[in-house]
Amino acid sequence: MIGPKTQMGLRRYTETPDGLGGFSQDWQGLRKLKGVLSSISGDEKLSQNRESIIQTHNFYIDYPVGATITERDRFVLGTRKFDIIWVENMGANQNKALKVTLKEIS
Protein backbone atom coordinates (compact mmCIF):
# COMPACT_ATOMS: atom_id res chain seq x y z
CA MET A 1 0.00 0.00 0.00
CA ILE A 2 1.20 3.49 -0.83
CA GLY A 3 0.84 6.26 1.74
CA PRO A 4 1.63 6.90 5.39
CA LYS A 5 1.08 3.82 7.54
CA THR A 6 -1.34 3.92 10.45
CA GLN A 7 -1.51 1.23 13.12
CA MET A 8 -5.03 0.45 14.29
CA GLY A 9 -6.30 -2.03 16.84
CA LEU A 10 -8.83 -4.65 15.72
CA ARG A 11 -11.48 -5.42 18.35
CA ARG A 12 -14.27 -7.98 18.50
CA TYR A 13 -17.46 -7.81 20.58
CA THR A 14 -17.53 -10.77 22.97
CA GLU A 15 -19.68 -12.13 25.77
CA THR A 16 -18.05 -13.96 28.66
CA PRO A 17 -19.80 -15.76 31.55
CA ASP A 18 -19.77 -13.69 34.75
CA GLY A 19 -20.06 -16.71 37.08
CA LEU A 20 -23.54 -15.70 38.24
CA GLY A 21 -25.50 -17.08 35.31
CA GLY A 22 -25.18 -13.94 33.23
CA PHE A 23 -22.72 -12.58 30.74
CA SER A 24 -20.28 -9.69 30.62
CA GLN A 25 -20.13 -7.92 27.27
CA ASP A 26 -17.07 -6.04 26.05
CA TRP A 27 -14.84 -5.27 23.04
CA GLN A 28 -11.75 -7.51 23.20
CA GLY A 29 -8.53 -6.52 21.45
CA LEU A 30 -7.48 -9.07 18.82
CA ARG A 31 -4.40 -7.59 17.16
CA LYS A 32 -2.90 -4.44 15.69
CA LEU A 33 -2.79 -3.96 11.92
CA LYS A 34 -0.83 -1.42 9.86
CA GLY A 35 -2.26 0.08 6.73
CA VAL A 36 -3.23 3.25 4.92
CA LEU A 37 -6.19 5.14 6.41
CA SER A 38 -7.87 7.50 3.94
CA SER A 39 -10.79 9.80 4.68
CA ILE A 40 -13.82 10.06 2.40
CA SER A 41 -15.69 13.24 1.53
CA GLY A 42 -18.66 13.87 3.81
CA ASP A 43 -21.34 13.22 1.20
CA GLU A 44 -20.01 9.99 -0.30
CA LYS A 45 -22.32 7.04 0.35
CA LEU A 46 -22.09 3.30 -0.05
CA SER A 47 -25.16 1.34 -1.06
CA GLN A 48 -25.17 -1.92 0.82
CA ASN A 49 -28.05 -4.32 1.46
CA ARG A 50 -30.61 -1.85 0.06
CA GLU A 51 -29.65 0.73 2.66
CA SER A 52 -27.68 3.90 2.22
CA ILE A 53 -24.85 3.91 4.74
CA ILE A 54 -22.52 6.85 5.14
CA GLN A 55 -18.87 5.88 5.16
CA THR A 56 -16.16 8.11 6.57
CA HIS A 57 -12.88 6.25 5.87
CA ASN A 58 -11.26 3.41 3.96
CA PHE A 59 -8.49 1.35 5.57
CA TYR A 60 -6.21 -0.47 3.11
CA ILE A 61 -4.22 -3.32 4.66
CA ASP A 62 -2.21 -6.32 3.57
CA TYR A 63 -4.21 -9.52 3.95
CA PRO A 64 -3.98 -10.47 7.66
CA VAL A 65 -2.90 -14.10 7.74
CA GLY A 66 -4.54 -15.91 10.64
CA ALA A 67 -7.26 -13.32 11.23
CA THR A 68 -10.76 -12.91 9.87
CA ILE A 69 -12.19 -9.39 9.76
CA THR A 70 -15.98 -9.07 9.62
CA GLU A 71 -18.61 -6.35 9.88
CA ARG A 72 -19.10 -7.34 13.52
CA ASP A 73 -15.60 -6.09 14.40
CA ARG A 74 -14.34 -2.58 15.05
CA PHE A 75 -11.07 -0.68 14.56
CA VAL A 76 -9.67 1.68 17.20
CA LEU A 77 -7.10 4.45 16.74
CA GLY A 78 -6.31 6.06 20.08
CA THR A 79 -9.67 7.31 21.37
CA ARG A 80 -11.30 7.16 17.90
CA LYS A 81 -13.58 4.22 17.06
CA PHE A 82 -14.55 2.95 13.60
CA ASP A 83 -17.34 0.48 12.84
CA ILE A 84 -16.68 -1.79 9.88
CA ILE A 85 -19.24 -1.35 7.09
CA TRP A 86 -17.75 -3.61 4.42
CA VAL A 87 -14.65 -5.75 3.85
CA GLU A 88 -13.47 -6.18 0.25
CA ASN A 89 -10.74 -8.58 -0.87
CA MET A 90 -8.89 -6.44 -3.43
CA GLY A 91 -6.88 -9.33 -4.85
CA ALA A 92 -9.95 -11.37 -5.84
CA ASN A 93 -9.12 -14.84 -4.52
CA GLN A 94 -5.40 -14.19 -4.15
CA ASN A 95 -5.77 -12.83 -0.59
CA LYS A 96 -3.16 -10.07 -0.96
CA ALA A 97 -4.90 -6.93 0.33
CA LEU A 98 -8.15 -5.80 1.92
CA LYS A 99 -10.10 -2.57 1.58
CA VAL A 100 -12.08 -2.05 4.77
CA THR A 101 -14.85 0.55 4.57
CA LEU A 102 -15.34 2.30 7.92
CA LYS A 103 -17.70 4.70 9.67
CA GLU A 104 -16.24 6.74 12.50
CA ILE A 105 -18.48 6.71 15.55
CA SER A 106 -18.56 9.13 18.47
Description of the structure:
The chain has 106 residues and is an all-beta fold. The two termini are 28 Å apart. The protein has strands at 6-17, 23-39, 45-48, 51-54, 57-62, 73-77, 80-89, 97-105. Helices cover 0% and strands 63% of the residues. The protein contains no helices and 8 strands. Residues 45-50 have low confidence and may be disordered. A 6-stranded antiparallel beta barrel has the order 1-2-5-8-7-6. Strands 3-4 form a two-stranded antiparallel sheet. The protein is globular and about 50 Å long. The protein has one domain (6-13, 26-105): Thrombin, subunit H (Beta Barrel).
Question: How would you summarize this macromolecular structure in one to three sentences?
Answer:
The protein contains no helices and eight strands. By secondary structure, the chain is mainly β.
